[in-house]
């Protein structure tokens, strides 16, 4: 018996070398790669550019742990978030969200900076990659050696607590691979702590990082970098124009591509003019490829069109707080009463401006003219409250009653009523939102998307609609765009637990576990009873092998979602029902979503118990997972593994027979899984063991 059990152990060991079995729709991390061998063929004339695989580190520090009050900054963290958003935008940097790491505020410690620069980037980058590093914060000089200032720097021990810029040049130039390397730095903010001589050393060192790095610094020798509310509601002037340039304003050739030279020229010219010549960004003219692609904007391609004239500033004022401003259909910021939103660097010509506030008729869109070298002020007047016709409100309320019943037929009735409400009042953004939710529940995603967009078009500051639209994008697999929608909400509303919880799910789907954990914990802090936030926190903790914490969160989820099955159809699952994604959303019934989540929670508990060698407990959890989803092959595979490990531990033939039965059931359900070959090996080993008895 022992020798035959040993044969079984060989097969199990082979299976154990794999990552933990993933649920349907999840990806195993060691199988996630980009094919380096099959290079794409040369693109034909007029085809979109080939964008290389891209990685970025974005660092922004406003408040420093150990610096005095007069050394604290205001906007580097907002700057860093803006850079992050444009980098992951499909109308911008086109970086994958999981390939852009952020160190914001207290996270930007010296230890974390070293880890990202000296461990993460060297471990993932390859020769043909594009790599970008952005830093906004302080720079210091000690004994003529320049340092970037991490969050935990101390002025009396700069050499030990700062990050040396010559080290940065060595790492970025020699250890981090890539054909296109970009360094964007917005430092030397404070005259109180950065003397003119120190600024000269810092800027000189940044420009001399390495000759194959495109380095664009915020200012030149002996100059400081400025930040103010005047630029986009609060930014460093340098970063404001970097983001605007990457959004397309730097694309002088209007070919939809912003190159290194185009960005450098646009930023240099506009910062110099906006600061009255007091700040002059500088770029290295080394051996970098001047045509390196920094941003691609397919909707902005107009080959052959001459570049427009430059210079022009728009100043927005409003008569109410919280008025969101749209220029040419794109949100540019929020303005409050008695304050102004200044938008410098706009190309002259005709533009449309619209001001919106939830619950009021918008002001605009209306045409305005931007003149070269001229500052134009536009006053937004929000006056008329929206008044819903009674017929529209009655139809909406009736539709909501059907929607909340949660069956496919009820959804169809709800959709018809919501459409009548919207027909009765074309500005009824709430009706448009619920049409999006209803059609999403009916798996008519294209129709749902049109209504989500309609709701946002009617009320662009309708954050709930943005969160809902992002949730649907998750289910469709458009995770990067979903993350962008959630970022808009969470940056504007720090108390929007719905967006934080959905953001946690999105990051989990991109294998961005630390970010998922942070967002989930924020959602739980805001609403401790949000069961699904505990679920996604548990999922990400499991994936980084923090079994004890993960188990506690799965148990919290199960406790908080432990409803009587008789009321399952009445649960307020409009969130879970339309965002679940991960390949698990199969039917429109809300009750099925609840079952799927519980199945996955017990699966996670089973996996955690297996990893801590508590096989008996794991078996019980897997059996519970199967009761909620008997059609999931992974549930049977994990159950079979635990039966097998318990058989090895106890020598039980009954456990071997149970393992064989579960392996066979797994193959019946899905014989194409990667784990199928290990299941067959174990079945063969078990048969030998049982036949010998």
What would you note in describing this structure?
- This protein is of the alpha/beta class and 693 residues long.
- Helix content is 48%, strand content 15%.
- It is built from 24 helices and 20 strands.
- The strands form 6 sheets. A 6-stranded mixed beta sheet has the order 2-1-3-7-8-12, sandwiched between helices. A 4-stranded antiparallel beta sheet has the order 16-15-18-19, with no helix packed on it.
- The chain is globular.
- The termini are close together.
- 49% of the residues are buried.
Outline the secondary-structure elements.
Layout: H1 2-16, E1 54-60, H2 76-88, E2 100-104, H3 110-124, E3 130-136, E4 139-142, E5 145-148, H4 158-161, E6 163-164, H5 165-175, E7 180-186, H6 196-207, E8 214-217, E9 227-228, E10 235-236, H7 237-249, E11 255-259, H8 260-274, E12 282-283, E13 293-301, E14 313-318, E15 323-327, E16 330-335, E17 340-343, E18 349-356, E19 363-370, E20 375-380, H9 390-403, H10 408-424, H11 429-441, H12 445-458, H13 463-476, H14 479-492, H15 497-509, H16 513-526, H17 531-543, H18 547-560, H19 574-579, H20 590-611, H21 615-628, H22 633-650, H23 653-669, H24 676-691
Parallel strand pairs: 1-2, 1-3, 3-7, 7-8, 14-20
Antiparallel strand pairs: 4-5, 5-6, 8-12, 9-10, 11-13, 14-17, 15-16, 15-18, 18-19
């Amino acid at each position: 018996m022992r020798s035959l059990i040993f044969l079984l152990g060989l097969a199990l060991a082979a299976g154990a070398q794999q990552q933990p079995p993933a649920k349907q729709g999840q990806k195993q991390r060691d199988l996630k790669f980009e094919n380096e061998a099959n290079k794409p063929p040369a693109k034909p004339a007029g085809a979109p550019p080939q964008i290389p695989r891209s990685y970025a580190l974005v660092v922004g520090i406003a408040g420093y742990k150990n610096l005095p009050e007069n050394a604290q900054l205001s906007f580097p963290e907002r700057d860093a978030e803006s850079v992050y958003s444009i980098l992951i935008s499909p109308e911008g940097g086109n970086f994958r969200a999981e390939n852009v790491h952020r160190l914001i505020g207290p996270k930007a410690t010296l230890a974390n900076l070293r880890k990202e620069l000296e461990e993460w980037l060297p471990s993932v980058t390859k020769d043909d990659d594009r790599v970008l590093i952005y830093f906004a914060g302080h720079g210091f000089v000690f004994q003529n050696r320049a340092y970037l200032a991490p969050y935990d720097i101390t002025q009396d021990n700069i050499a030990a607590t700062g990050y040396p810029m010559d080290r940065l040049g060595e790492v970025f130039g020699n250890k981090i691979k890539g054909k296109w390397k970009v360094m964007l730095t917005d430092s030397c903010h404070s005259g109180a702590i950065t003397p003119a001589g120190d600024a000269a050393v810092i800027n000189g060192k940044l420009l001399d990082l390495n000759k194959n790095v495109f380095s664009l610094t915020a200012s030149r020798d002996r100059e400081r970098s400025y930040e103010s509310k005047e630029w986009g509601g609060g930014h460093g002037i340098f970063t404001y124009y970097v983001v605007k340039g990457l959004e397309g304003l730097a694309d002088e050739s209007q070919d939809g591509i912003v190159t290194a030279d185009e960005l450098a020229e646009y930023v240099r010219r506009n910062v110099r003019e906006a600061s009255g010549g007091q700040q002059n960004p500088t770029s290295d003219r080394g051996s970098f490829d001047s045509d390196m692609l920094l941003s691609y904007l397919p909707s902005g391609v107009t080959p052959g069109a001459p570049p427009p004239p430059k210079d022009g500033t728009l100043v927005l004022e409003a008569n109410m707080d919280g008025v969101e401003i749209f220029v040419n259909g794109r949100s540019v910021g929020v303005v409050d009463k008695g304050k102004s939103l200044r938008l410098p660097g706009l190309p002259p010509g005709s533009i449309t401006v619209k001001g919106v506030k939830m619950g009021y008729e918008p002001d605009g869109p209306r045409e305005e003219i931007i003149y070269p070298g001229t500052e134009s002020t536009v006053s937004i007047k929000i006056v008329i409250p929206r008044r819903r016709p009674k017929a529209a409100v009655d139809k909406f309320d009736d539709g909501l009653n059907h929607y909340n019943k949660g069956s496919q037929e009820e959804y169809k009735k709800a959709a018809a009523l919501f459409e009548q409400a919207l027909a009765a009042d074309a500005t009824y953004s709430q009706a448009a939102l619920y049409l999006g939710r209803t059609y999403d529940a009916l798996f008519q995603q294209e129709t749902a998307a049109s209504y989500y967009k309609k709701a946002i078009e009617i009320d662009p500051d309708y954050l709930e609609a943005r969160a809902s639209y992002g949730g649907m994008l998750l289910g469709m697999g458009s995770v990067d765009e979903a993350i962008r929608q959630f970022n808009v909400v969470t940056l504007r509303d720090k108390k929007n637990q719905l967006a934080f919880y959905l953001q946690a799910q999105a990051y989990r789907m991109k294998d961005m576990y630390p970010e998922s954990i942070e967002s989930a914990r924020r959602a739980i802090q805001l609403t401790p009873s949000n069961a699904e936030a505990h679920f996604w926190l548990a999922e990400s903790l499991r994936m980084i092998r923090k079994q004890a914490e993960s188990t506690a969160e799965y148990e919290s989820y199960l406790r908080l979602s432990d409803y009587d099955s008789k009321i399952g159809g009445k649960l307020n699952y409009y969130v879970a029902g339309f965002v679940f994604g991960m390949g698990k959303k199969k039917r429109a019934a809300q009750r099925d979503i609840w079952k799927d989540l519980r199945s996955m929670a017990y699966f996670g508990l089973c996996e955690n118990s297996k990893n801590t060698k508590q096989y008996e407990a794991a078996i019980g959890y897997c059996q519970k997972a199967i009761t909620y989803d008997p059609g999931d092959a992974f549930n049977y595979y994990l159950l079979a593994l635990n039966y097998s490990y318990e058989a090895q531990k106890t020598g039980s033939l009954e456990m071997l027979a149970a393992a064989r039965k579960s392996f066979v059931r797994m193959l019946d359900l899905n014989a194409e899984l990667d784990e199928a070959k290990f299941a067959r090996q174990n079945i063969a080993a078990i048969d030998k063991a049982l036949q010998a008895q």
